[in-house]
Amino acid sequence: MNGFKLEMHLHTLGNSRCAKVSADRAAKIYADAGYDGVVVTNHWNRNIAENYFADSSDKINEYLKGYYAMKATGIHTLFGVELALREDFYSPLNRRGAEILVYGITAEEFREYGESLYRNSYDGLRRLANDRGWLLYQAHPFRERSKRVPPEFLDGVEVYNGNPRHINANAIAAIYAEKHRLKPSAGSDFHQAGDVKSGICFRDKITDEKALAAALSSDAFRIFKNIKKLKQVSEKAISET
Ligand SMILES: [Zn+2]
Ligand SMILES: [Zn+2]
C-alpha cells in the first residue's frame, strides 16, 4: 500500500483504565505493522480529570505524558484528543455517552484550553474548532450506549472503529455519514496489544496536526481495515502478551 499510513485512534497506558499498552510497546507494534505514524487520542473528560487523575496536581501535564512518551519512541507522532463534553463521558453510571475525536489540535493548544475544553457545549466546541481549524469527528457513533452528537456540530464520524470489545455497528455509521454528508474517518481505537486494525492512508506525508486537518478535508486518502498484515501483527502481539 503506497502512501502515508496513520493510526487515527490510539490510547496509551496511564491515561485511562481502559488503556493497557505503554507507548514503547505500541510504537514497536505499529512499526511492525508498517504504519508511518500514529495520532495519540487519549480520553479527556471530567471523569478522567477528576477521578483518574484525582491525585495529580498537574492534570494537563499528566494527560500529555502519553503523547510525549510516544514521540520519544521515535515513531512519527501527532497529537489528538478523544473528548467527551460535560456529562457525555462513558462510565458505568452513565447510560449514554458520546466522544468526539479532535484532529488538528496541537499539544500547545491543548495546554492553552485544558479543562475548559470538556466544559464546552457542542456549540461552544464547534465555534472553537472553527476558530482554531480543528476538525470534530464523533467516535464510534453507533456503539452500544452511544448517543448521537447532532451532525451540525461535527465535521465527520468514524465509519470504522476497530475496537474488538464493543459492538460498533460500523456499517450503520457508514450509512449515517453519507446521509448527513459527514466526512469519514477510521481507526483501531487501540487499547490492547492485539488491537491494530485500521487507519487512513494519505497520499502525502502528514507532517503535523495542521497538515492532518488539511488532508482530512481533501479527498487525498483512503481508509484501510482488517488487512492480512494487521491480523498477523495483532496475533503476534497477543502471543507475546
Ligand atoms: Zn478507552
Ligand atoms: Zn477511543
Quick overview:
With 241 residues, the protein is an alpha/beta fold.
Task: List the SSEs and their pairings.
Blueprint (H helix, E strand, L loop, with lengths): L3 E7 L12 H10 L4 E8 L1 H7 L6 H14 L4 E7 L16 E4 L3 H7 L8 H11 L2 E4 L17 E6 L8 H10 L3 E5 L10 E5 L6 H9 L3 E5 L2 H12 L2
Parallel strand pairs: 1-2, 2-3, 5-6, 6-7
Antiparallel strand pairs: 1-8, 3-4, 4-5, 8-9
The chain binds zinc ion (2 copies).
The site of one zinc ion has 6 residues, from loops.
InterPro entries: PHP_domain, Pol/histidinol_Pase-like
GO molecular function, one term: 5'-3' DNA exonuclease activity
Organism: Candidatus Stercoripulliclostridium merdigallinarum
What attributes characterize this protein structure?
alpha/beta; TIM Barrel; 8 helices; about 20% strand; globular; about 240 residues
